[in-house]
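ok trying again, last paste got cut off:
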Amino acid sequence: MNHVLTITETKQEKNELILIPIEEWPEEEWHKLSDGMRMLADSDALTFVYVLDLDGEFVQLRLPKQTWPSLKTAYEQGWEVLVQGPPLVKLGQFHQEMEYLLSNIPGNGNYGSDMVETVEKVFQVS
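nice, full thing came through this time. structure:
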């Protein structure tokens, strides 16, 4: 099983941001997914990676830079963020993890200049 879900589309419903993955997964796998409660940065790909759990194995929920304007709105508005599957999977630590990344990436050369510049521009932080 490929343990990657890539988000390229989002939609807003009331006070929620729904993340729509491009991969097709079997329904039984969706029911096993749970919140891994942390988010990382893939500087080379200009992507945030939210960690999901699948029976003790990591699943990368990849959030490339084209999704960041929607993530910014959800973060600023305090919306719940969910992944669309047969069941919706809530990203319960999204706001805390975004806060951590947005306080650490700006001005931090360890993330690489492209990542730093893109985060600063999209999220208007420095």
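cool. The chain has one domain: 4-123. Residues 4-123 form one domain.
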